[in-house]
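Components:
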Amino acid sequence: MSSDLFDVQIKTVGLDLFYGDNRVLKNITFDIGRKKVTAFIGPSGCGKSSYLRCLNRMNDFIPSARITGTIEMEGENILSPETDVIALRRRVGMVFQKPNPFPMSIYENVAYGPRLNGLKDKNILDETVEKSLRGAALWDEVKDKLSSPGTGLSGGQQQRLCIARAIATQPEVLLMDEPTSALDPMSTARVEELIRELKGDYTVAIVTHNMQQAARISDYTAFFLLGDLIEYDRTAKIFTSPSDKKTEDYISGRFG
Amino acid sequence: MDRNRSRKIKDLAMTSLFCLAAFMLVAAVAGVGAFLFKEGWQILSLDFLIEAPRDGMTAGGIMTPLVGTIQLVIVSMAAALPIGIMTGLYFAEYSKDDWLTRVLRVSIRCLAGVPSVIYGLFGLSLFVIFLNFGSSLLSAGLTLGCLSLPLIVTVSEQAFLAVPQDYRDASYALGATKCQTILKVVLPSAASTIITGTILSIGRVAGETAPIMFTGAAFFAPEVAKSVFDQVMALPYHIYVLATASTDLEATRPIQYGAILVLIGLVLGTSAIGVVARSRLAARSGRQ
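Structure:
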Protein backbone atom coordinates (compact mmCIF):
# COMPACT_ATOMS: atom_id res chain seq x y z
CA MET A 1 0.00 0.00 0.00
CA SER A 2 1.50 3.31 -0.91
CA SER A 3 2.01 5.86 1.80
CA ASP A 4 1.18 8.93 -0.23
CA LEU A 5 -2.43 8.40 0.81
CA PHE A 6 -1.72 9.94 4.19
CA ASP A 7 0.66 12.10 6.17
CA VAL A 8 3.33 9.73 7.56
CA GLN A 9 4.05 9.85 11.30
CA ILE A 10 6.13 6.72 11.74
CA LYS A 11 8.20 5.20 8.94
CA THR A 12 9.50 1.68 9.58
CA VAL A 13 12.09 0.29 7.17
CA GLY A 14 13.62 -3.21 7.20
CA LEU A 15 13.01 -3.75 10.90
CA ASP A 16 14.33 -6.99 12.42
CA LEU A 17 13.97 -7.80 16.10
CA PHE A 18 15.68 -10.69 17.86
CA TYR A 19 15.21 -11.99 21.39
CA GLY A 20 18.40 -13.99 21.67
CA ASP A 21 18.42 -16.25 18.60
CA ASN A 22 14.70 -15.96 18.14
CA ARG A 23 13.79 -13.69 15.22
CA VAL A 24 10.59 -12.04 16.44
CA LEU A 25 10.12 -9.50 13.65
CA LYS A 26 11.27 -10.09 10.08
CA ASN A 27 12.07 -7.27 7.71
CA ILE A 28 9.10 -5.09 8.59
CA THR A 29 8.52 -2.08 6.31
CA PHE A 30 5.44 0.14 6.44
CA ASP A 31 4.22 3.62 7.37
CA ILE A 32 1.84 4.68 10.13
CA GLY A 33 -0.38 7.68 9.37
CA ARG A 34 -0.58 10.81 11.48
CA LYS A 35 -3.71 11.08 13.63
CA LYS A 36 -5.00 7.75 12.41
CA VAL A 37 -5.86 4.68 14.44
CA THR A 38 -3.73 1.78 13.27
CA ALA A 39 -4.64 -1.66 14.59
CA PHE A 40 -2.22 -4.58 14.85
CA ILE A 41 -3.81 -7.99 14.68
CA GLY A 42 -2.50 -11.54 14.53
CA PRO A 43 -2.30 -14.67 16.65
CA SER A 44 -0.35 -14.74 19.94
CA GLY A 45 3.41 -14.59 19.46
CA CYS A 46 3.17 -13.00 16.00
CA GLY A 47 5.28 -10.02 17.04
CA LYS A 48 2.63 -7.30 17.18
CA SER A 49 3.25 -6.34 20.81
CA SER A 50 7.01 -6.56 20.28
CA TYR A 51 6.66 -4.12 17.39
CA LEU A 52 4.70 -1.71 19.59
CA ARG A 53 7.47 -1.87 22.19
CA CYS A 54 10.01 -0.83 19.55
CA LEU A 55 8.17 2.47 19.13
CA ASN A 56 8.98 3.64 22.68
CA ARG A 57 12.10 1.52 23.08
CA MET A 58 10.62 -0.57 25.90
CA ASN A 59 12.51 -3.51 24.39
CA ASP A 60 15.66 -1.86 25.77
CA PHE A 61 14.81 -3.50 29.09
CA ILE A 62 15.15 -6.99 27.62
CA PRO A 63 18.89 -7.71 27.72
CA SER A 64 18.79 -10.25 24.89
CA ALA A 65 16.85 -7.96 22.51
CA ARG A 66 18.66 -6.85 19.34
CA ILE A 67 17.17 -4.59 16.68
CA THR A 68 18.26 -3.76 13.13
CA GLY A 69 16.59 -1.52 10.57
CA THR A 70 15.16 1.93 11.17
CA ILE A 71 12.05 3.54 12.58
CA GLU A 72 11.78 7.21 11.69
CA MET A 73 9.63 9.64 13.60
CA GLU A 74 9.72 13.24 12.33
CA GLY A 75 12.79 12.35 10.29
CA GLU A 76 14.73 11.04 13.28
CA ASN A 77 15.74 7.37 13.59
CA ILE A 78 14.44 6.53 17.06
CA LEU A 79 16.39 3.24 17.13
CA SER A 80 19.72 5.06 16.91
CA PRO A 81 21.90 4.73 20.02
CA GLU A 82 22.08 8.53 20.13
CA THR A 83 18.32 8.88 20.53
CA ASP A 84 17.31 10.39 23.85
CA VAL A 85 15.06 7.55 25.00
CA ILE A 86 13.63 9.60 27.88
CA ALA A 87 12.58 12.38 25.49
CA LEU A 88 11.19 9.80 23.05
CA ARG A 89 8.98 8.25 25.73
CA ARG A 90 7.61 11.68 26.54
CA ARG A 91 6.51 11.96 22.89
CA VAL A 92 5.19 8.41 22.70
CA GLY A 93 2.73 7.49 25.45
CA MET A 94 1.74 3.93 26.28
CA VAL A 95 -1.26 2.19 27.76
CA PHE A 96 -0.71 -1.37 28.94
CA GLN A 97 -2.75 -4.53 28.78
CA LYS A 98 -3.47 -4.62 32.49
CA PRO A 99 -4.58 -1.32 34.02
CA ASN A 100 -1.59 -0.26 36.10
CA PRO A 101 -2.31 2.98 37.97
CA PHE A 102 0.36 3.91 40.50
CA PRO A 103 -0.53 3.37 44.17
CA MET A 104 -1.16 7.10 44.51
CA SER A 105 -4.17 9.40 44.35
CA ILE A 106 -6.05 9.86 41.08
CA TYR A 107 -4.65 13.39 40.85
CA GLU A 108 -1.06 12.26 41.44
CA ASN A 109 -1.38 9.53 38.83
CA VAL A 110 -2.27 12.04 36.13
CA ALA A 111 0.19 14.66 37.37
CA TYR A 112 3.07 12.16 37.35
CA GLY A 113 4.16 12.74 33.74
CA PRO A 114 3.83 16.55 33.78
CA ARG A 115 5.76 16.65 37.06
CA LEU A 116 8.56 14.60 35.44
CA ASN A 117 8.73 17.31 32.80
CA GLY A 118 9.33 19.82 35.56
CA LEU A 119 5.83 21.28 35.78
CA LYS A 120 5.39 22.66 39.31
CA ASP A 121 2.82 25.45 39.01
CA LYS A 122 -0.22 24.23 40.95
CA ASN A 123 -2.74 26.03 38.70
CA ILE A 124 -1.29 24.66 35.47
CA LEU A 125 -1.07 21.18 37.04
CA ASP A 126 -4.73 21.38 38.12
CA GLU A 127 -5.68 22.42 34.60
CA THR A 128 -3.62 19.65 32.99
CA VAL A 129 -5.12 17.02 35.30
CA GLU A 130 -8.67 18.17 34.55
CA LYS A 131 -8.03 18.38 30.81
CA SER A 132 -6.47 14.91 30.71
CA LEU A 133 -9.24 13.34 32.79
CA ARG A 134 -11.84 14.99 30.55
CA GLY A 135 -9.89 13.74 27.54
CA ALA A 136 -10.09 10.23 28.95
CA ALA A 137 -13.83 10.61 29.64
CA LEU A 138 -13.28 10.10 33.34
CA TRP A 139 -13.59 13.60 34.80
CA ASP A 140 -17.27 13.47 35.71
CA GLU A 141 -16.83 10.20 37.58
CA VAL A 142 -13.83 11.24 39.66
CA LYS A 143 -13.90 15.04 39.97
CA ASP A 144 -15.11 14.84 43.59
CA LYS A 145 -12.53 12.28 44.70
CA LEU A 146 -9.29 13.31 43.05
CA SER A 147 -7.35 12.63 46.24
CA SER A 148 -8.58 9.06 46.70
CA PRO A 149 -6.35 6.21 45.50
CA GLY A 150 -6.38 5.41 41.79
CA THR A 151 -6.27 1.72 42.62
CA GLY A 152 -9.71 2.02 44.23
CA LEU A 153 -11.43 2.61 40.88
CA SER A 154 -13.09 -0.12 38.83
CA GLY A 155 -11.04 -1.88 36.15
CA GLY A 156 -12.51 0.17 33.32
CA GLN A 157 -12.05 3.42 35.22
CA GLN A 158 -8.47 2.42 36.04
CA GLN A 159 -7.71 1.90 32.37
CA ARG A 160 -9.20 5.30 31.49
CA LEU A 161 -7.08 6.75 34.31
CA CYS A 162 -4.04 5.19 32.64
CA ILE A 163 -5.10 6.77 29.34
CA ALA A 164 -5.47 10.13 31.12
CA ARG A 165 -2.01 9.65 32.61
CA ALA A 166 -0.58 8.87 29.18
CA ILE A 167 -2.14 11.90 27.46
CA ALA A 168 -1.25 14.31 30.29
CA THR A 169 2.21 14.81 28.78
CA GLN A 170 0.59 15.58 25.39
CA PRO A 171 2.38 12.90 23.40
CA GLU A 172 2.16 12.76 19.62
CA VAL A 173 1.70 9.02 19.54
CA LEU A 174 -0.33 6.79 21.85
CA LEU A 175 0.56 3.10 21.98
CA MET A 176 -2.05 0.72 23.33
CA ASP A 177 -1.17 -2.89 24.05
CA GLU A 178 -4.49 -4.79 24.18
CA PRO A 179 -5.99 -2.06 26.39
CA THR A 180 -9.37 -3.75 26.78
CA SER A 181 -8.40 -7.39 27.17
CA ALA A 182 -8.73 -7.19 30.99
CA LEU A 183 -12.02 -5.28 30.89
CA ASP A 184 -15.68 -6.26 30.88
CA PRO A 185 -17.81 -5.53 27.77
CA MET A 186 -19.28 -2.28 29.13
CA SER A 187 -15.88 -0.85 30.03
CA THR A 188 -14.52 -2.06 26.70
CA ALA A 189 -17.22 -0.14 24.85
CA ARG A 190 -16.35 3.05 26.76
CA VAL A 191 -12.63 2.71 26.06
CA GLU A 192 -13.31 2.03 22.37
CA GLU A 193 -15.50 5.11 22.19
CA LEU A 194 -12.68 7.04 23.83
CA ILE A 195 -10.13 5.79 21.29
CA ARG A 196 -12.35 7.05 18.46
CA GLU A 197 -12.43 10.47 20.14
CA LEU A 198 -8.66 10.50 20.72
CA LYS A 199 -7.72 10.04 17.10
CA GLY A 200 -8.44 13.68 16.28
CA ASP A 201 -5.49 14.62 18.47
CA TYR A 202 -3.18 11.62 18.56
CA THR A 203 -1.68 8.99 16.34
CA VAL A 204 -2.95 5.78 17.94
CA ALA A 205 -1.27 2.40 17.48
CA ILE A 206 -3.30 -0.38 19.10
CA VAL A 207 -2.60 -4.06 19.46
CA THR A 208 -5.73 -6.14 19.78
CA HIS A 209 -6.73 -9.77 19.92
CA ASN A 210 -10.24 -8.83 19.10
CA MET A 211 -10.85 -8.52 15.37
CA GLN A 212 -14.24 -6.91 15.79
CA GLN A 213 -12.51 -4.26 17.85
CA ALA A 214 -9.96 -3.61 15.13
CA ALA A 215 -12.79 -3.36 12.60
CA ARG A 216 -14.78 -0.99 14.82
CA ILE A 217 -12.14 1.52 15.81
CA SER A 218 -9.23 1.54 13.38
CA ASP A 219 -8.57 3.31 10.08
CA TYR A 220 -5.74 1.00 9.08
CA THR A 221 -4.97 -2.57 10.04
CA ALA A 222 -1.70 -4.48 9.98
CA PHE A 223 -1.85 -8.28 10.08
CA PHE A 224 1.21 -9.98 11.57
CA LEU A 225 1.96 -13.69 11.40
CA LEU A 226 5.06 -15.36 12.88
CA GLY A 227 7.06 -12.15 12.72
CA ASP A 228 6.06 -11.21 9.17
CA LEU A 229 3.85 -8.29 8.25
CA ILE A 230 1.51 -10.19 5.95
CA GLU A 231 -0.83 -7.41 4.98
CA TYR A 232 -1.32 -3.73 5.76
CA ASP A 233 -4.19 -1.74 4.36
CA ARG A 234 -7.28 0.28 5.10
CA THR A 235 -9.29 -1.54 7.75
CA ALA A 236 -12.34 -1.62 5.49
CA LYS A 237 -10.30 -3.29 2.75
CA ILE A 238 -8.65 -5.86 5.10
CA PHE A 239 -11.96 -6.97 6.54
CA THR A 240 -13.91 -7.08 3.28
CA SER A 241 -11.48 -8.10 0.58
CA PRO A 242 -8.05 -9.01 1.93
CA SER A 243 -5.39 -9.55 -0.73
CA ASP A 244 -3.60 -12.35 1.07
CA LYS A 245 -5.06 -15.79 1.62
CA LYS A 246 -3.52 -15.98 5.12
CA THR A 247 -5.22 -12.74 6.16
CA GLU A 248 -8.51 -14.06 4.90
CA ASP A 249 -8.06 -17.31 6.80
CA TYR A 250 -7.23 -15.45 10.00
CA ILE A 251 -10.06 -12.94 9.94
CA SER A 252 -12.57 -15.58 8.97
CA GLY A 253 -11.50 -17.52 12.06
CA ARG A 254 -9.86 -20.47 10.39
CA PHE A 255 -6.86 -20.21 12.70
CA GLY A 256 -5.43 -18.12 15.54
CA MET B 1 -17.85 -47.31 58.47
CA ASP B 2 -15.06 -48.23 60.87
CA ARG B 3 -12.41 -46.75 58.63
CA ASN B 4 -14.37 -43.58 58.39
CA ARG B 5 -14.64 -43.36 62.16
CA SER B 6 -10.96 -43.94 62.79
CA ARG B 7 -10.16 -41.25 60.25
CA LYS B 8 -12.38 -38.82 62.07
CA ILE B 9 -10.71 -39.63 65.38
CA LYS B 10 -7.29 -39.17 63.83
CA ASP B 11 -8.40 -35.83 62.44
CA LEU B 12 -9.70 -34.73 65.82
CA ALA B 13 -6.47 -35.82 67.51
CA MET B 14 -4.31 -33.86 65.09
CA THR B 15 -6.48 -30.76 65.43
CA SER B 16 -6.21 -30.96 69.22
CA LEU B 17 -2.46 -31.42 69.01
CA PHE B 18 -1.99 -28.29 66.89
CA CYS B 19 -4.34 -26.29 69.12
CA LEU B 20 -2.39 -27.45 72.15
CA ALA B 21 0.92 -26.35 70.58
CA ALA B 22 -0.52 -22.92 69.80
CA PHE B 23 -1.99 -22.68 73.29
CA MET B 24 1.34 -23.56 74.90
CA LEU B 25 2.95 -20.69 73.06
CA VAL B 26 0.31 -18.25 74.25
CA ALA B 27 0.58 -19.68 77.78
CA ALA B 28 4.35 -19.18 77.80
CA VAL B 29 4.00 -15.54 76.77
CA ALA B 30 1.20 -14.94 79.26
CA GLY B 31 3.19 -16.72 82.01
CA VAL B 32 6.28 -14.59 81.48
CA GLY B 33 4.15 -11.46 81.31
CA ALA B 34 2.23 -12.31 84.49
CA PHE B 35 5.42 -13.16 86.39
CA LEU B 36 7.13 -9.90 85.40
CA PHE B 37 4.04 -7.89 86.14
CA LYS B 38 3.63 -9.47 89.56
CA GLU B 39 7.25 -8.73 90.47
CA GLY B 40 7.50 -5.26 89.05
CA TRP B 41 4.14 -3.51 88.94
CA GLN B 42 4.37 -1.89 92.40
CA ILE B 43 7.36 0.19 91.46
CA LEU B 44 5.91 1.49 88.17
CA SER B 45 5.06 5.17 88.38
CA LEU B 46 5.85 8.35 86.55
CA ASP B 47 8.62 9.05 89.08
CA PHE B 48 10.21 5.70 88.23
CA LEU B 49 10.53 6.86 84.62
CA ILE B 50 11.79 10.39 85.22
CA GLU B 51 14.14 9.83 88.17
CA ALA B 52 17.75 8.79 87.75
CA PRO B 53 19.05 5.83 89.79
CA ARG B 54 20.57 6.84 93.12
CA ASP B 55 22.09 5.36 96.31
CA GLY B 56 24.27 2.91 94.38
CA MET B 57 21.29 2.09 92.09
CA THR B 58 19.32 0.67 95.01
CA ALA B 59 16.77 3.46 94.81
CA GLY B 60 15.40 6.00 92.35
CA GLY B 61 14.15 5.33 88.84
CA ILE B 62 15.49 4.38 85.46
CA MET B 63 15.51 7.69 83.61
CA THR B 64 19.16 7.58 82.51
CA PRO B 65 19.12 4.02 81.08
CA LEU B 66 15.74 4.63 79.43
CA VAL B 67 16.94 7.76 77.67
CA GLY B 68 20.22 5.99 76.85
CA THR B 69 18.39 3.16 75.13
CA ILE B 70 16.35 5.62 73.07
CA GLN B 71 19.56 7.45 72.13
CA LEU B 72 21.18 4.17 71.09
CA VAL B 73 18.18 3.28 68.93
CA ILE B 74 18.31 6.69 67.23
CA VAL B 75 22.06 6.54 66.51
CA SER B 76 21.90 2.94 65.28
CA MET B 77 18.93 3.56 62.97
CA ALA B 78 20.41 6.82 61.65
CA ALA B 79 23.43 4.79 60.59
CA ALA B 80 21.81 1.53 59.51
CA LEU B 81 18.64 2.68 57.71
CA PRO B 82 20.22 4.69 54.87
CA ILE B 83 22.95 2.10 54.27
CA GLY B 84 20.57 -0.85 54.62
CA ILE B 85 17.87 0.57 52.34
CA MET B 86 20.40 1.62 49.70
CA THR B 87 21.98 -1.83 49.79
CA GLY B 88 18.54 -3.38 49.39
CA LEU B 89 17.93 -1.06 46.43
CA TYR B 90 21.23 -2.11 44.90
CA PHE B 91 20.30 -5.79 45.13
CA ALA B 92 16.75 -5.33 43.89
CA GLU B 93 17.24 -2.75 41.15
CA TYR B 94 20.85 -2.58 40.04
CA SER B 95 22.82 -5.76 40.67
CA LYS B 96 23.24 -8.34 37.96
CA ASP B 97 22.98 -12.01 38.81
CA ASP B 98 26.75 -12.61 38.80
CA TRP B 99 29.26 -14.07 41.24
CA LEU B 100 29.85 -10.71 42.96
CA THR B 101 26.16 -10.35 43.80
CA ARG B 102 26.01 -13.92 45.06
CA VAL B 103 29.06 -13.38 47.29
CA LEU B 104 27.49 -10.19 48.69
CA ARG B 105 24.20 -11.94 49.29
CA VAL B 106 25.77 -14.89 51.08
CA SER B 107 27.88 -12.49 53.18
CA ILE B 108 24.79 -10.68 54.37
CA ARG B 109 23.04 -13.95 55.25
CA CYS B 110 26.15 -14.96 57.24
CA LEU B 111 26.20 -11.61 58.99
CA ALA B 112 22.66 -12.27 60.20
CA GLY B 113 23.85 -15.45 61.90
CA VAL B 114 26.83 -13.96 63.75
CA PRO B 115 26.33 -14.03 67.56
CA SER B 116 25.80 -10.58 69.01
CA VAL B 117 28.82 -10.76 71.30
CA ILE B 118 31.01 -10.98 68.19
CA TYR B 119 29.46 -7.69 67.03
CA GLY B 120 30.47 -6.29 70.40
CA LEU B 121 34.09 -7.33 69.92
CA PHE B 122 34.04 -6.06 66.33
CA GLY B 123 32.67 -2.70 67.49
CA LEU B 124 35.32 -2.57 70.21
CA SER B 125 38.18 -3.03 67.79
CA LEU B 126 36.78 -0.92 64.93
CA PHE B 127 34.87 1.97 66.48
CA VAL B 128 36.28 2.20 70.01
CA ILE B 129 39.95 1.55 69.29
CA PHE B 130 40.77 1.86 65.58
CA LEU B 131 38.53 4.85 64.80
CA ASN B 132 39.19 6.17 68.28
CA PHE B 133 35.55 7.00 69.08
CA GLY B 134 36.19 5.63 72.57
CA SER B 135 33.61 3.83 74.66
CA SER B 136 30.69 6.04 73.71
CA LEU B 137 27.12 6.41 72.50
CA LEU B 138 28.51 6.69 68.96
CA SER B 139 30.52 3.44 69.10
CA ALA B 140 27.70 1.49 70.73
CA GLY B 141 25.09 2.94 68.33
CA LEU B 142 27.17 2.09 65.27
CA THR B 143 27.79 -1.43 66.61
CA LEU B 144 24.04 -1.92 67.04
CA GLY B 145 23.62 -0.47 63.53
CA CYS B 146 25.91 -3.18 62.12
CA LEU B 147 23.89 -5.78 63.99
CA SER B 148 20.62 -4.60 62.43
CA LEU B 149 21.98 -4.19 58.89
CA PRO B 150 21.33 -7.75 57.65
CA LEU B 151 17.66 -7.59 58.64
CA ILE B 152 17.16 -4.13 57.12
CA VAL B 153 18.92 -5.08 53.89
CA THR B 154 16.92 -8.29 53.50
CA VAL B 155 13.59 -6.69 54.31
CA SER B 156 14.28 -3.73 51.98
CA GLU B 157 15.31 -5.99 49.13
CA GLN B 158 12.18 -8.12 49.51
CA ALA B 159 10.06 -4.97 49.72
CA PHE B 160 11.53 -3.58 46.49
CA LEU B 161 11.20 -6.91 44.68
CA ALA B 162 7.55 -7.08 45.70
CA VAL B 163 6.76 -3.81 43.89
CA PRO B 164 4.95 -4.90 40.71
CA GLN B 165 6.91 -4.54 37.46
CA ASP B 166 3.78 -2.87 36.04
CA TYR B 167 4.50 0.25 38.08
CA ARG B 168 8.03 0.47 36.75
CA ASP B 169 6.88 -0.06 33.15
CA ALA B 170 4.25 2.65 33.51
CA SER B 171 6.81 5.06 34.93
CA TYR B 172 9.41 4.37 32.25
CA ALA B 173 6.79 4.65 29.51
CA LEU B 174 6.02 8.16 30.77
CA GLY B 175 9.64 9.13 30.24
CA ALA B 176 10.92 8.71 33.78
CA THR B 177 14.56 7.90 34.38
CA LYS B 178 15.52 4.94 36.54
CA CYS B 179 16.34 7.26 39.41
CA GLN B 180 12.98 9.05 39.16
CA THR B 181 11.16 5.73 38.95
CA ILE B 182 12.88 4.47 42.09
CA LEU B 183 12.35 7.65 44.09
CA LYS B 184 8.76 8.36 43.06
CA VAL B 185 7.27 4.91 42.55
CA VAL B 186 9.38 2.06 43.92
CA LEU B 187 10.40 3.57 47.28
CA PRO B 188 6.92 4.82 48.25
CA SER B 189 5.36 1.48 47.29
CA ALA B 190 7.90 -0.39 49.39
CA ALA B 191 7.78 2.02 52.35
CA SER B 192 5.21 0.17 54.45
CA THR B 193 7.14 -3.10 54.34
CA ILE B 194 10.42 -1.33 55.12
CA ILE B 195 8.80 0.36 58.12
CA THR B 196 7.80 -3.04 59.47
CA GLY B 197 11.37 -4.25 59.07
CA THR B 198 12.67 -1.14 60.81
CA ILE B 199 10.37 -1.73 63.76
CA LEU B 200 11.63 -5.29 64.07
CA SER B 201 15.20 -4.02 64.09
CA ILE B 202 14.39 -1.39 66.69
CA GLY B 203 13.01 -4.11 68.92
CA ARG B 204 16.18 -6.12 68.50
CA VAL B 205 18.50 -3.13 68.97
CA ALA B 206 16.71 -1.93 72.10
CA GLY B 207 17.03 -5.34 73.74
CA GLU B 208 20.68 -6.18 72.96
CA THR B 209 23.25 -6.27 75.76
CA ALA B 210 26.37 -7.96 74.44
CA PRO B 211 27.18 -5.56 71.57
CA ILE B 212 27.09 -2.50 73.83
CA MET B 213 28.90 -3.91 76.88
CA PHE B 214 32.37 -3.23 75.42
CA THR B 215 31.48 -0.31 73.19
CA GLY B 216 29.67 2.33 75.18
CA ALA B 217 27.26 1.12 77.86
CA ALA B 218 28.14 2.45 81.29
CA PHE B 219 27.80 0.49 84.53
CA PHE B 220 26.60 3.75 85.96
CA ALA B 221 26.45 7.27 84.55
CA PRO B 222 25.28 10.17 86.72
CA GLU B 223 23.45 11.85 83.85
CA VAL B 224 22.17 11.49 80.32
CA ALA B 225 24.74 11.56 77.49
CA LYS B 226 25.00 15.10 76.13
CA SER B 227 27.22 14.24 73.16
CA VAL B 228 27.69 11.13 71.03
CA PHE B 229 31.13 10.73 72.62
CA ASP B 230 29.71 10.29 76.12
CA GLN B 231 29.04 6.89 77.63
CA VAL B 232 25.41 5.95 78.12
CA MET B 233 23.42 3.73 80.41
CA ALA B 234 21.10 1.35 78.60
CA LEU B 235 18.08 -0.60 79.87
CA PRO B 236 19.19 -4.13 78.98
CA TYR B 237 22.65 -3.64 80.44
CA HIS B 238 21.15 -1.90 83.47
CA ILE B 239 18.93 -4.93 84.04
CA TYR B 240 21.97 -7.21 83.72
CA VAL B 241 23.93 -5.09 86.20
CA LEU B 242 21.10 -4.98 88.72
CA ALA B 243 20.64 -8.74 88.51
CA THR B 244 24.30 -9.72 88.78
CA ALA B 245 26.34 -6.95 90.37
CA SER B 246 24.01 -5.26 92.76
CA THR B 247 25.23 -4.21 96.20
CA ASP B 248 21.84 -5.07 97.68
CA LEU B 249 19.93 -7.68 95.65
CA GLU B 250 16.77 -7.44 97.77
CA ALA B 251 16.54 -3.68 97.30
CA THR B 252 17.21 -3.68 93.58
CA ARG B 253 14.95 -6.59 92.62
CA PRO B 254 11.78 -4.49 92.14
CA ILE B 255 13.77 -1.92 90.15
CA GLN B 256 15.12 -4.70 87.98
CA TYR B 257 11.63 -6.06 87.19
CA GLY B 258 10.28 -2.56 86.70
CA ALA B 259 13.03 -1.88 84.19
CA ILE B 260 12.19 -5.11 82.36
CA LEU B 261 8.53 -4.11 82.15
CA VAL B 262 9.48 -0.69 80.76
CA LEU B 263 11.84 -2.25 78.20
CA ILE B 264 9.16 -4.67 77.03
CA GLY B 265 6.60 -1.87 76.97
CA LEU B 266 8.98 0.23 74.89
CA VAL B 267 9.49 -2.51 72.33
CA LEU B 268 5.80 -3.41 72.15
CA GLY B 269 4.89 0.29 71.92
CA THR B 270 7.23 0.76 68.97
CA SER B 271 5.68 -2.25 67.26
CA ALA B 272 2.20 -0.83 67.80
CA ILE B 273 3.23 2.51 66.31
CA GLY B 274 4.74 0.62 63.39
CA VAL B 275 1.58 -1.37 62.76
CA VAL B 276 -0.52 1.79 62.76
CA ALA B 277 1.92 3.66 60.50
CA ARG B 278 2.01 0.73 58.13
CA SER B 279 -1.73 0.38 57.81
CA ARG B 280 -2.09 4.17 57.33
CA LEU B 281 0.47 4.14 54.54
CA ALA B 282 -1.18 1.13 52.95
CA ALA B 283 -4.60 2.75 53.14
CA ARG B 284 -3.32 5.96 51.59
CA SER B 285 -1.73 4.19 48.66
CA GLY B 286 -4.67 1.82 48.27
CA ARG B 287 -2.47 -1.25 48.56
CA GLN B 288 -2.88 -3.97 51.13
